[in-house]
Write the structure tokens for this entry.
Amino acid sequence: MSSTVKLQQVLLIDDDDSVRELALMGLEGMTDWKIDLAASASEGLEKAKKSHPDLILLDFVMPDMNGLEAFAKLQEDPELKDIPVILMTGKTEPKEVEQFLQSGLSGVITKPFDPVTLSEQIEEILAHRD
């Protein structure tokens, strides 16, 4: 993907209300992207099947399944496997981040994140995808 990333629809999957609200404020305030929200991994997977977003922002720690388990389910679906997925996590040990990236995720954004620069972080990650 080139540095001119054109996103229209983003799905944010996070069980934390405050994280969803913060990300939504930042992304809607800084972009013209349509942001769809899901409060659990299973809800997010259902919404992804219906809407086929351009990008999925996926929380790592959720009660029903973790982000890597949800990512694996996305990868199993031929219609969803090519959607870029960025993991959002408080786990910032370099070894953990490397493991996340080796799993095929497009990138990792660490929490807490700055809502003002969140869209720039996303665009930067997508611009450097293989």
Observations:
- The domain at 9-127 is CATH 3.40.50.2300 (Rossmann fold).
- The CA atoms of residues 3 and 127 lie 4 Å apart.
- DSSP finds five helices and five strands in the chain.
